[in-house]
Amino acid sequence: MKIFIDTYSWAKIDVLVDASYVDINYFYQKFEICITHDVLKEIRYREIKSCQIQNLHVYPIKNKRIYEDAIIQRFDEADASLLSNGSRKGDTIIITEDKPLLELGKSYRIEIIQLIDFFRILTKLNLFTKNTLFKINRELRKLRNISKNKEKEIKDFLQQLK
Question: Whole-angstrom Cα distance, residue 17 to residue 111?
């Protein structure tokens, strides 16, 4: 499975790695972690530590129509290039914290989710512990990365797992 991650999500992963909630090497072992050339430029500029470029798969723009549509809607090249690599087949997931990008991706029926939802999936698959998801949820809310509603949604999900 290909996992495309946007720059802002990488910044959140950095915080979670620093807090010892996430072992980034685990992701590189389990998934094909992907970015685009435009995201790579942003990652280098922002000096994202958890992004191990040598372990990534870097892709060009795939669907030019989706890319151009995103540009017309005033998304930057990095976001547009990520969206252009989306898939309806379920073999690719895009992770982004950009709510307008989430909406646009969903309008194309592309598999696109927030970082916390990716961690929820991993917990449901028993690849993450409930305690880890709880801590990540708390940390992302503290950073104002997720809304109170999303925080509650994750807490409710954790309650259902008991």
Answer: 25
